[in-house]
Amino acid sequence: MTDVQQRAAAKAFSEYWADKGYEKGESQPFWLSLLRDVYGVEHPEQYITFEDQVHLDHTSFIDGRIPETRVLIEQKGLDKDLKKPIKQSDGTLLTPFQQAKRYITELPVSQHPRWVVTCNFAEFLIYDMEHPGLEPEVLLLTDAVYSFPFISAKQTEQLVQKLQKQLSIHQRKRYRYLTIARQDRKTNNRQVFWNIEQLDEAIEQKKKVKLSYLHYGLDKKQHETKSYTLSPYEMVYMNEHYYLICVPDHASNTRLYRIDRMKDIQILDEPRSEAVARQEAQNAVYAYVGAPERIVMYCDRCDTF
After folding, report:
1. Beta bridge partners of 75
2. In this structure, are strands 115-119 and 71-75 parallel, antiparallel, or unpaired?
3. pTM score of the predicted model
4. For residues 230-251, average pLDDT
5. Going by C-beta distance under 8 Å and a sequence separation of 6 or more, which residues neighbour residue 2?
6. CB-based burial of residue 207 (10 Å sphere; 0-12 exposed, 13-18 middle, 19+ buried)?
7. Could you give the CA distance from residue 69 to residue 266 in angstroms, rounded to a whole number?
8. What is the pLDDT of residues 263-297, one digit of tens each?
9. Maximum CA pair distance of the chain?
C-alpha cells in the first residue's frame, strides 16, 4: 500500500466510522477494519485478540491486545472522555489509561505491553509504558521552567520546546497557549546554567572563584558593578532564586550571592577557605545571614492582624 493509498483508506475509514461508536457491539469490527483497511495487515484476526480474561477481585476482560507489537487496547464508546474517570463495576473511578494499568499488573511480566492505546472511536491516545507518567511530569516541569525567574525568557522557551519533544503532536497542543506570565521577572543573564556548572566544579575541587557581580539599573537591566573572589561551598534554592553559599575574601562571615547575578566565573588555583557557617546560611532570611535575635515590639494601639 502506497502513502497515497493509505491516506485514501484512512479517510474512507474515518468517514465510515464517523457516526458509530457502540463499545460492546462495534469495537472488534472497528479494530479489524483499522488494521486491515488502513494499515494493510492481511488476516488481522491472526494478530489481535479480544476479550482476554484478567483476574482482579473479579473477572474482567481486556478489550484488545496485539502481542507481537506489545500493544494493549482499552476501548470506550463514542460518548466517553478518555481523560476523565469512569465508574467501574466495583465502584472505583478510573480513567481508561488507569484501567489499562490495573489490568497490566495482573498479567505475567512476559505479557506486559510496551504501548497502551485508549480509544473512543473518534480519538486515540497512545502511552509509552517506558514513560507511563510522562505527560504530567512534562506539565509539572513546564510550569516550573515558566515560573523560575532565574531562567531567561529565551532559555525558558528553549527548555519548554525540549521538554515537549517528549510528547506526541496531539499532547503538545494542550500546551500551545502557555506563556510567561511576567517577562519582567525573568533575568536577562543567559549565563545561569554555565554559572551553575562552573560553581559545581569549583565546589568539587574546593577552589576559590573570581566573578563579576551584576546589579539592576533604572533601565531594569543587569549591569556589572563589582568583582569578587569567593570561597564557594554550596548552592541552595530559596525565595525563587539560586544562591551560592560562600565566604568572600573581603569579609570573614558567610554570604549568599544570587547565581543569576553572576558573570564570567573563573575557577582559581587557590584553595578555598574551609571556615564556613553552613547552618547560618541555611537559616538565612531573604539571603541575609546573621545570628537570630528576639525582638519585642510595643504598640500604642493593638489592632487585629
Report:
1. 119
2. parallel
3. 0.48
4. 85
5. none
6. middle
7. 53
8. 899 999 999 987 665 555 555 555 566 666 788 88
9. 90
